[in-house]
Amino acid sequence: MITIDGNGAVASVAFRTSEVIAIYPITPSSTMAEQADAWAGNGLKNVWGDTPRVVEMQSEAGAIATVHGALQTGALSTSFTSSQGLLLMIPTLYKLAGELHRLSCM
User: Where is the Pyruvate flavodoxin/ferredoxin oxidoreductase pyrimidine binding domain (predicted)?
Assistant: First the structure.
């Protein structure tokens, strides 16, 4: 049995199911970003046998824009954030939702 906290569990699942991970360290999600970066640096593989690409951005807006771009190319993407960071991501999340809705109506 392995004992880990919630951040470790989320980071583990997200790392293993992502192809691109956009990070901007912000408490309390910094540990998840640091773990993902360390795992990628050590060559840990995801469920598809590839090492996810971890990209550190200079802001939360940059992190969610990276996720947006990765999703547009068909890559599975993840970002970790806090409640304050999520507020900064809302405009891009609305854009993503609108694009998904438009695609589903075609």
Answer: 13-99
